[in-house]
Specification:
With 60 residues, the protein is α+β, with helices and mostly antiparallel strands. The protein is built from two helices and four strands, in the order βββααβ. 28% of the residues lie in helices and 27% in strands. The longest helix has 9 residues. The chain is flat, with a radius of gyration of 10 Å. The model has no long low-confidence stretch (mean pLDDT 61).
């Protein structure tokens, strides 16, 4: 199942690393359809730009 990763910003699938607060724009779903929707609509890119990161879709 794919999920969105914002590289270099320490966020993934909406869960923050290192105890940081999650941004609302980064509350992404690990579900395939939701992950694709975020990429298709550009929401992932907006969140990444806000955090100076890069968007990557990862499959597990």
């Amino acid at each position: 199942m794919p999920y969105i990763v914002v590289k270099e910003a320490r966020y993934y699938t909406g869960d923050p690393l290192n105890g940081s607060k999650a941004d609302e724009l980064l509350v992404w779903s690990p579900f395939k359809k939701s992950a694709k929707r975020y990429v298709k609509r550009g929401w992932a890119e907006k969140a990444a730009a806000k955090l100076h990161g890069q968007v990557e879709e990862v499959r597990k």
